[in-house]
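Record 1 of the preview.
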Amino acid sequence: MSKYLNRRFAGLDVYTPGEQPKQMQYIKLNTNESPYPPSPEVIAAVNAREIADLRLYPDPECLVLKERLAALYGVGRENVYLANGSDDILNFAFMAFAGDGKKAWFPSISYGFYPVYADLHQIDAVQVPLLEDFTLDPADYCSLTGPGQEGGLICIANPNAPTGLALSLGQIRQILDANPDKVVLIDEAYVDFGAASAVRLTADYENLLVVQTFSKSRSMAGARLGFAIANRQLIADLDRLKYSTNPYSINRLTQTAAIAAVDSNDYYAANCQRIMDTRQYTADALRNLGFTVIPSMANFLFVKSPQIDGTALYEELKARGVLIRHFAKPEITDYNRITIGSKEEMKTFLEKIREILEEMS
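->
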Protein backbone atom coordinates (compact mmCIF):
# COMPACT_ATOMS: atom_id res chain seq x y z
CA MET A 1 0.00 0.00 0.00
CA SER A 2 1.08 3.59 -0.47
CA LYS A 3 2.08 6.05 2.22
CA TYR A 4 -0.98 8.12 1.27
CA LEU A 5 -3.64 5.64 2.33
CA ASN A 6 -5.86 6.75 5.20
CA ARG A 7 -4.64 4.87 8.28
CA ARG A 8 -8.24 3.91 9.03
CA PHE A 9 -8.15 1.52 6.05
CA ALA A 10 -4.60 0.23 6.38
CA GLY A 11 -5.56 -2.74 8.53
CA LEU A 12 -8.70 -3.85 6.70
CA ASP A 13 -9.14 -7.61 6.41
CA VAL A 14 -10.55 -7.60 2.89
CA TYR A 15 -12.98 -10.02 1.27
CA THR A 16 -11.37 -12.65 -0.97
CA PRO A 17 -13.47 -13.46 -4.05
CA GLY A 18 -13.54 -16.95 -5.50
CA GLU A 19 -10.80 -17.74 -8.00
CA GLN A 20 -11.30 -16.61 -11.59
CA PRO A 21 -8.21 -18.23 -13.15
CA LYS A 22 -7.14 -17.55 -16.72
CA GLN A 23 -4.15 -19.87 -17.11
CA MET A 24 -6.18 -22.99 -17.99
CA GLN A 25 -9.74 -24.14 -18.59
CA TYR A 26 -11.48 -25.32 -15.44
CA ILE A 27 -14.85 -26.72 -14.53
CA LYS A 28 -15.80 -23.86 -12.19
CA LEU A 29 -17.66 -25.12 -9.14
CA ASN A 30 -16.29 -22.47 -6.79
CA THR A 31 -18.35 -19.26 -7.12
CA ASN A 32 -22.00 -20.42 -7.18
CA GLU A 33 -22.66 -19.18 -10.70
CA SER A 34 -25.47 -20.70 -12.74
CA PRO A 35 -24.45 -23.38 -15.25
CA TYR A 36 -27.19 -22.17 -17.59
CA PRO A 37 -27.21 -19.07 -19.83
CA PRO A 38 -29.68 -16.20 -19.47
CA SER A 39 -33.05 -16.73 -21.10
CA PRO A 40 -33.37 -16.28 -24.90
CA GLU A 41 -35.45 -13.16 -24.17
CA VAL A 42 -32.56 -11.62 -22.21
CA ILE A 43 -30.05 -12.35 -24.97
CA ALA A 44 -32.39 -10.92 -27.61
CA ALA A 45 -33.10 -7.78 -25.58
CA VAL A 46 -29.44 -6.98 -24.94
CA ASN A 47 -28.49 -7.66 -28.54
CA ALA A 48 -31.29 -5.61 -30.05
CA ARG A 49 -31.86 -2.63 -27.76
CA GLU A 50 -30.08 0.11 -25.88
CA ILE A 51 -26.70 -0.23 -27.60
CA ALA A 52 -27.12 3.00 -29.56
CA ASP A 53 -28.19 4.84 -26.41
CA LEU A 54 -25.13 3.93 -24.33
CA ARG A 55 -24.06 7.55 -24.82
CA LEU A 56 -26.97 8.52 -22.52
CA TYR A 57 -27.16 8.01 -18.77
CA PRO A 58 -29.43 5.19 -17.59
CA ASP A 59 -32.63 5.81 -15.64
CA PRO A 60 -31.35 6.31 -12.06
CA GLU A 61 -34.71 5.23 -10.63
CA CYS A 62 -34.98 2.08 -12.77
CA LEU A 63 -38.73 2.65 -12.88
CA VAL A 64 -39.67 -0.01 -15.44
CA LEU A 65 -37.61 -2.68 -13.70
CA LYS A 66 -39.01 -1.71 -10.30
CA GLU A 67 -42.55 -2.03 -11.65
CA ARG A 68 -41.83 -5.50 -13.06
CA LEU A 69 -40.28 -6.70 -9.79
CA ALA A 70 -43.09 -5.17 -7.72
CA ALA A 71 -45.65 -7.03 -9.84
CA LEU A 72 -43.74 -10.31 -9.59
CA TYR A 73 -43.40 -10.15 -5.79
CA GLY A 74 -46.77 -8.57 -5.00
CA VAL A 75 -45.46 -5.34 -3.47
CA GLY A 76 -45.54 -1.64 -4.37
CA ARG A 77 -42.92 0.01 -6.54
CA GLU A 78 -41.96 2.11 -3.52
CA ASN A 79 -41.03 -1.11 -1.70
CA VAL A 80 -38.32 -2.06 -4.20
CA TYR A 81 -34.68 -0.93 -4.14
CA LEU A 82 -32.09 -1.71 -6.83
CA ALA A 83 -28.30 -1.61 -6.68
CA ASN A 84 -25.13 -2.70 -8.42
CA GLY A 85 -25.18 -6.23 -7.00
CA SER A 86 -26.60 -7.29 -3.66
CA ASP A 87 -23.18 -6.56 -2.14
CA ASP A 88 -23.89 -2.85 -2.65
CA ILE A 89 -27.13 -3.22 -0.70
CA LEU A 90 -25.35 -5.02 2.13
CA ASN A 91 -22.73 -2.27 2.23
CA PHE A 92 -25.38 0.46 2.39
CA ALA A 93 -27.35 -1.46 5.04
CA PHE A 94 -24.32 -1.66 7.33
CA MET A 95 -23.75 2.07 6.78
CA ALA A 96 -27.39 3.02 7.32
CA PHE A 97 -28.51 0.83 10.20
CA ALA A 98 -25.39 0.13 12.29
CA GLY A 99 -22.49 2.19 13.60
CA ASP A 100 -22.63 5.40 15.61
CA GLY A 101 -22.94 3.28 18.74
CA LYS A 102 -25.25 0.66 17.19
CA LYS A 103 -23.99 -2.90 16.78
CA ALA A 104 -24.32 -5.46 14.02
CA TRP A 105 -25.02 -9.15 14.64
CA PHE A 106 -24.44 -11.98 12.17
CA PRO A 107 -23.44 -15.67 12.29
CA SER A 108 -19.79 -16.49 12.86
CA ILE A 109 -19.87 -18.83 9.86
CA SER A 110 -21.61 -17.06 6.99
CA TYR A 111 -20.96 -14.78 4.03
CA GLY A 112 -17.44 -13.41 4.31
CA PHE A 113 -18.40 -9.85 3.43
CA TYR A 114 -20.36 -9.24 6.66
CA PRO A 115 -17.28 -8.83 8.90
CA VAL A 116 -15.54 -6.87 6.13
CA TYR A 117 -18.34 -4.30 6.03
CA ALA A 118 -18.38 -4.07 9.81
CA ASP A 119 -14.64 -3.45 9.82
CA LEU A 120 -14.83 -0.96 6.93
CA HIS A 121 -17.45 1.15 8.70
CA GLN A 122 -15.93 0.71 12.19
CA ILE A 123 -19.02 -1.05 13.51
CA ASP A 124 -18.97 -3.03 16.73
CA ALA A 125 -19.89 -6.47 15.38
CA VAL A 126 -20.99 -9.58 17.27
CA GLN A 127 -20.37 -12.83 15.43
CA VAL A 128 -22.88 -15.29 16.84
CA PRO A 129 -21.70 -18.93 16.86
CA LEU A 130 -23.71 -21.54 15.02
CA LEU A 131 -24.65 -24.78 16.71
CA GLU A 132 -22.38 -27.80 16.35
CA ASP A 133 -24.35 -29.04 13.33
CA PHE A 134 -24.01 -25.60 11.66
CA THR A 135 -27.66 -24.69 12.22
CA LEU A 136 -28.59 -21.21 13.41
CA ASP A 137 -30.54 -21.04 16.68
CA PRO A 138 -33.08 -18.17 16.49
CA ALA A 139 -32.99 -17.96 20.29
CA ASP A 140 -29.47 -16.52 20.03
CA TYR A 141 -30.97 -13.46 18.32
CA CYS A 142 -34.02 -13.12 20.58
CA SER A 143 -32.35 -11.79 23.72
CA LEU A 144 -30.43 -8.80 22.36
CA THR A 145 -31.62 -6.30 24.93
CA GLY A 146 -29.99 -4.14 27.55
CA PRO A 147 -27.36 -1.39 27.54
CA GLY A 148 -25.29 -1.28 24.37
CA GLN A 149 -27.70 -3.44 22.40
CA GLU A 150 -30.31 -0.87 21.43
CA GLY A 151 -30.97 -0.57 17.71
CA GLY A 152 -28.54 -1.80 15.09
CA LEU A 153 -28.57 -4.46 12.38
CA ILE A 154 -29.11 -8.21 12.42
CA CYS A 155 -27.84 -9.78 9.19
CA ILE A 156 -28.71 -13.38 8.35
CA ALA A 157 -28.10 -15.23 5.08
CA ASN A 158 -31.00 -17.57 4.43
CA PRO A 159 -30.08 -20.10 3.16
CA ASN A 160 -26.76 -19.60 4.89
CA ALA A 161 -23.46 -19.71 3.05
CA PRO A 162 -21.38 -21.81 2.93
CA THR A 163 -23.58 -24.41 4.65
CA GLY A 164 -26.79 -24.18 2.57
CA LEU A 165 -28.98 -24.57 5.67
CA ALA A 166 -32.15 -22.46 5.90
CA LEU A 167 -34.47 -21.03 8.55
CA SER A 168 -38.24 -21.36 8.30
CA LEU A 169 -40.47 -18.30 8.06
CA GLY A 170 -41.65 -19.08 11.59
CA GLN A 171 -38.09 -18.84 12.88
CA ILE A 172 -37.57 -15.54 11.04
CA ARG A 173 -40.76 -14.22 12.63
CA GLN A 174 -39.34 -15.14 16.04
CA ILE A 175 -36.28 -12.97 15.40
CA LEU A 176 -38.37 -10.09 14.05
CA ASP A 177 -40.81 -10.18 16.97
CA ALA A 178 -37.95 -10.10 19.47
CA ASN A 179 -36.16 -7.16 17.80
CA PRO A 180 -38.58 -4.38 16.84
CA ASP A 181 -35.86 -1.78 17.46
CA LYS A 182 -33.39 -3.36 15.01
CA VAL A 183 -33.33 -3.77 11.24
CA VAL A 184 -33.36 -7.47 10.41
CA LEU A 185 -31.74 -8.10 7.02
CA ILE A 186 -32.46 -11.47 5.44
CA ASP A 187 -29.95 -12.09 2.66
CA GLU A 188 -31.73 -14.39 0.20
CA ALA A 189 -29.06 -14.83 -2.48
CA TYR A 190 -29.89 -18.55 -2.68
CA VAL A 191 -33.57 -18.61 -1.76
CA ASP A 192 -34.77 -19.75 -5.20
CA PHE A 193 -33.24 -23.20 -4.76
CA GLY A 194 -35.77 -24.53 -2.27
CA ALA A 195 -36.07 -22.19 0.73
CA ALA A 196 -39.03 -19.97 1.67
CA SER A 197 -38.67 -16.26 0.94
CA ALA A 198 -39.40 -13.73 3.67
CA VAL A 199 -40.68 -11.16 1.14
CA ARG A 200 -44.28 -11.82 2.22
CA LEU A 201 -43.35 -10.80 5.78
CA THR A 202 -42.35 -7.28 4.74
CA ALA A 203 -46.03 -6.27 4.87
CA ASP A 204 -46.11 -7.19 8.58
CA TYR A 205 -42.72 -5.92 9.79
CA GLU A 206 -41.45 -2.39 9.21
CA ASN A 207 -37.94 -3.46 10.28
CA LEU A 208 -37.52 -6.31 7.76
CA LEU A 209 -35.18 -5.84 4.79
CA VAL A 210 -35.09 -8.74 2.28
CA VAL A 211 -32.18 -8.75 -0.16
CA GLN A 212 -31.93 -10.84 -3.34
CA THR A 213 -29.69 -10.99 -6.39
CA PHE A 214 -29.83 -11.68 -10.12
CA SER A 215 -26.42 -13.41 -9.90
CA LYS A 216 -27.47 -16.92 -8.94
CA SER A 217 -30.88 -18.14 -10.07
CA ARG A 218 -31.19 -15.57 -12.89
CA SER A 219 -27.80 -16.28 -14.52
CA MET A 220 -26.65 -12.63 -14.45
CA ALA A 221 -23.60 -12.65 -12.16
CA GLY A 222 -21.68 -10.66 -14.77
CA ALA A 223 -24.36 -7.96 -15.01
CA ARG A 224 -24.14 -6.98 -11.31
CA LEU A 225 -27.70 -6.44 -10.08
CA GLY A 226 -29.27 -6.85 -6.67
CA PHE A 227 -32.58 -5.77 -5.21
CA ALA A 228 -34.21 -5.33 -1.84
CA ILE A 229 -37.84 -5.37 -0.74
CA ALA A 230 -38.91 -3.63 2.45
CA ASN A 231 -41.06 -1.00 4.10
CA ARG A 232 -40.95 2.22 2.06
CA GLN A 233 -39.11 4.09 4.84
CA LEU A 234 -36.24 1.57 4.80
CA ILE A 235 -36.09 1.86 1.00
CA ALA A 236 -35.92 5.66 1.36
CA ASP A 237 -33.00 5.26 3.77
CA LEU A 238 -31.08 3.18 1.21
CA ASP A 239 -31.95 5.64 -1.57
CA ARG A 240 -30.46 8.45 0.52
CA LEU A 241 -27.10 6.66 0.47
CA LYS A 242 -27.37 5.69 -3.20
CA TYR A 243 -28.02 9.27 -4.25
CA SER A 244 -25.11 10.39 -2.08
CA THR A 245 -22.69 8.08 -3.89
CA ASN A 246 -23.63 6.92 -7.40
CA PRO A 247 -27.23 7.34 -8.64
CA TYR A 248 -26.30 5.81 -12.02
CA SER A 249 -24.95 2.56 -10.59
CA ILE A 250 -27.17 0.31 -12.76
CA ASN A 251 -26.30 0.65 -16.42
CA ARG A 252 -28.64 0.55 -19.41
CA LEU A 253 -27.72 -2.95 -20.54
CA THR A 254 -28.22 -4.43 -17.08
CA GLN A 255 -31.62 -2.75 -16.71
CA THR A 256 -32.70 -4.04 -20.13
CA ALA A 257 -31.47 -7.57 -19.40
CA ALA A 258 -33.13 -7.62 -15.98
CA ILE A 259 -36.52 -6.54 -17.34
CA ALA A 260 -36.37 -9.38 -19.87
CA ALA A 261 -35.29 -11.79 -17.12
CA VAL A 262 -38.28 -10.92 -14.93
CA ASP A 263 -40.57 -11.27 -17.94
CA SER A 264 -39.19 -14.77 -18.59
CA ASN A 265 -39.39 -15.95 -14.98
CA ASP A 266 -40.68 -19.43 -15.93
CA TYR A 267 -37.40 -20.14 -17.73
CA TYR A 268 -35.44 -19.46 -14.55
CA ALA A 269 -37.82 -21.44 -12.35
CA ALA A 270 -37.25 -24.45 -14.60
CA ASN A 271 -33.47 -24.00 -14.36
CA CYS A 272 -33.70 -23.83 -10.57
CA GLN A 273 -35.53 -27.15 -10.56
CA ARG A 274 -32.83 -28.67 -12.78
CA ILE A 275 -30.17 -27.44 -10.36
CA MET A 276 -32.08 -28.86 -7.37
CA ASP A 277 -32.37 -32.23 -9.12
CA THR A 278 -28.64 -32.22 -9.91
CA ARG A 279 -27.92 -31.21 -6.30
CA GLN A 280 -29.78 -34.29 -5.07
CA TYR A 281 -27.96 -36.53 -7.57
CA THR A 282 -24.58 -35.15 -6.46
CA ALA A 283 -25.39 -35.34 -2.75
CA ASP A 284 -26.47 -38.99 -3.05
CA ALA A 285 -23.32 -39.89 -4.98
CA LEU A 286 -21.04 -38.17 -2.45
CA ARG A 287 -22.76 -39.88 0.47
CA ASN A 288 -22.23 -43.21 -1.26
CA LEU A 289 -18.53 -42.33 -1.38
CA GLY A 290 -18.50 -41.79 2.39
CA PHE A 291 -18.76 -38.00 2.43
CA THR A 292 -20.62 -36.03 5.07
CA VAL A 293 -23.02 -33.81 3.11
CA ILE A 294 -24.85 -30.97 4.87
CA PRO A 295 -28.51 -30.81 3.70
CA SER A 296 -28.57 -27.83 1.34
CA MET A 297 -31.29 -25.52 0.07
CA ALA A 298 -28.83 -23.54 -2.07
CA ASN A 299 -27.10 -24.12 -5.40
CA PHE A 300 -24.10 -25.67 -3.66
CA LEU A 301 -23.17 -28.46 -1.26
CA PHE A 302 -20.98 -28.26 1.85
CA VAL A 303 -19.12 -31.55 2.29
CA LYS A 304 -16.21 -33.32 3.93
CA SER A 305 -14.60 -36.72 3.54
CA PRO A 306 -13.13 -38.95 6.27
CA GLN A 307 -10.50 -40.09 3.74
CA ILE A 308 -8.97 -36.76 2.71
CA ASP A 309 -8.81 -33.35 4.37
CA GLY A 310 -10.46 -30.30 2.85
CA THR A 311 -7.28 -28.57 1.69
CA ALA A 312 -5.89 -31.68 0.01
CA LEU A 313 -9.16 -32.39 -1.79
CA TYR A 314 -9.32 -28.83 -3.08
CA GLU A 315 -5.75 -29.02 -4.36
CA GLU A 316 -6.17 -32.46 -5.95
CA LEU A 317 -9.31 -31.39 -7.79
CA LYS A 318 -7.69 -28.16 -8.98
CA ALA A 319 -4.78 -30.13 -10.40
CA ARG A 320 -7.34 -32.15 -12.36
CA GLY A 321 -9.11 -29.08 -13.76
CA VAL A 322 -12.00 -28.76 -11.28
CA LEU A 323 -12.30 -25.72 -9.00
CA ILE A 324 -14.21 -25.88 -5.72
CA ARG A 325 -14.15 -23.44 -2.78
CA HIS A 326 -12.07 -24.10 0.32
CA PHE A 327 -12.15 -21.94 3.46
CA ALA A 328 -9.24 -21.73 5.89
CA LYS A 329 -11.41 -20.90 8.92
CA PRO A 330 -10.56 -23.56 11.54
CA GLU A 331 -14.18 -24.56 12.24
CA ILE A 332 -14.79 -25.48 8.59
CA THR A 333 -11.36 -26.26 7.18
CA ASP A 334 -12.27 -29.95 6.75
CA TYR A 335 -15.16 -28.94 4.46
CA ASN A 336 -15.39 -27.70 0.90
CA ARG A 337 -18.21 -25.86 -0.85
CA ILE A 338 -19.15 -27.28 -4.23
CA THR A 339 -21.29 -25.30 -6.66
CA ILE A 340 -23.89 -27.34 -8.52
CA GLY A 341 -23.04 -27.18 -12.20
CA SER A 342 -24.69 -28.96 -15.09
CA LYS A 343 -25.33 -32.70 -14.82
CA GLU A 344 -22.37 -33.32 -17.14
CA GLU A 345 -20.07 -31.13 -15.03
CA MET A 346 -21.10 -32.92 -11.85
CA LYS A 347 -20.48 -36.32 -13.45
CA THR A 348 -16.94 -35.18 -14.31
CA PHE A 349 -16.50 -33.82 -10.78
CA LEU A 350 -17.58 -37.17 -9.29
CA GLU A 351 -15.26 -39.08 -11.64
CA LYS A 352 -12.35 -36.96 -10.38
CA ILE A 353 -13.36 -37.58 -6.77
CA ARG A 354 -13.36 -41.34 -7.40
CA GLU A 355 -9.94 -41.09 -9.04
CA ILE A 356 -8.52 -39.26 -6.02
CA LEU A 357 -9.97 -41.68 -3.47
CA GLU A 358 -8.78 -44.71 -5.46
CA GLU A 359 -5.27 -43.32 -5.70
CA MET A 360 -5.23 -42.75 -1.95
CA SER A 361 -6.29 -46.32 -1.20
